[in-house]
Write a structure and sequence with these properties.
With 410 residues, this protein is of the alpha+beta class. The chain is built from 12 helices and 22 strands. Among the domains are: 3-49 and 100-172 and 276-343, FAD/NAD(P)-binding domain (3-Layer(bba) Sandwich), CATH 3.50.50.60; 346-406, no CATH class. Helix content is 35%, strand content 25%. Strands 6-5-15-18-19-14-20 form a 7-stranded mixed sheet, with helices on both faces. A hairpin with a 2-residue loop joins strand 16 and strand 17 (207-208). Helix 8 (334-355) crosses helix 12 and helix 10 packs across helix 12. The longest helix is centred in the C-terminal third of the chain and has 22 residues, at 334-355. The chain is globular, with a radius of gyration of 21 Å.
Length: 410
Amino acid sequence: MRPLIIGGGPAGTAAAITLAERGVPARLIDRRGVAAPIDKACGGLLTPRAVHLLGSLGLEVASLGRPIDFVDLVARGRRQRIKWPTSTDAGETTGIVVSRGRLDSALLDRASELGVEVELGREAIEPIVERGFVRGVRTSNGEQESTEPAELLLVADGANSTFGRELGTSRRQDWPSVSALRVMLPYAATDRFGVEFHLDLERGPGDGLPGFGWVFPVDDHTVNIGVQVASTARDATAVNLHLLLERLLERVAGSWGITVDPAEAAERAEGARTPVGDSIVPVAGPNFLVAGDAAGHANPLTGTGIEAALRLGIEAGEVLAAASRTAPDALQAYVPRVRAIHADHHKTGRQIVRLTGRPLGARLLAALATTTWGAPTVMRFALAEFRSSGGVAETLHSAARLLGRVAPEA
């Protein structure tokens, strides 16, 4: 049985590469054309573990992007510089910045190199289902429709997965999602290549929000500046992301050599809403799996999804490889594997963003973020590097994880 993969982002390509490395031929289709790379609100900033995963898939990571020299944590006028935390499985790997277009192209090239049949510019329109099993997929290249056989299927077509919804997936409405807004601007290049996280987003004085702002160079000429807020914020739908971004731009313009008018730049910013924390269900059916943003696999604390997409794409590829040699029943191993990786961590994350969405929780987080020891702890926690960061961060994560096992989800 040859698996069909819908979506050529990190999850879909990681699965395709994994299948090819295990000797299983696969076909991958993506609605984007060759000249239409994906553009995401905060895409391009890769954690050390994501870099490690790319290396395990056979990519030459050193040629992809530029290493991150440092991380600056900023809150209430205080600044704390830390090294990007590493993880035990990633060794001393650092984070990098790489454009999403370049990342996706490198992954697709690697898949093609290993023998995966890749077709860009072909959209999956709807599944053909018989007795609960997907038997095929109706597709179109913009000019002509055709039917693709699909004995085994992976849905990895992104956060707005229309195809996933056709198969019955839906988001748990009471679980958090994140909304982000970002703009790319020219800046005065320096010899530094670091990242700033601003931990003190406020709707008004003393009215903190469960979210953060970021600033990082994309290259020597362009900087990515954005804000992100979780749906757990009080009156979340009324939060003005454009105003938050404008305030952040006003704050950082001088130090980054940005001369564009903050109000004008914020007005032309682009945004996205992303399901997070495994909030999409189901992620496995009789003969299909769902991965990446289509499955809500992004980190609920940071909203970043590339690391999760790569990791769960690899898991999906391994499960699909087993199913291709036995029977579709083998796909049921996918859900326990996802839970083993994400369950405790994502439940803890969901509870944290709920807590920080309340006024008292937001004030406590802001106060912690201004202390000398608290700022690194907060961001290590948010960057999901708990298992290897050690010290206070590891202690806090262990306590939160224990609480998460008995605390209600509501």
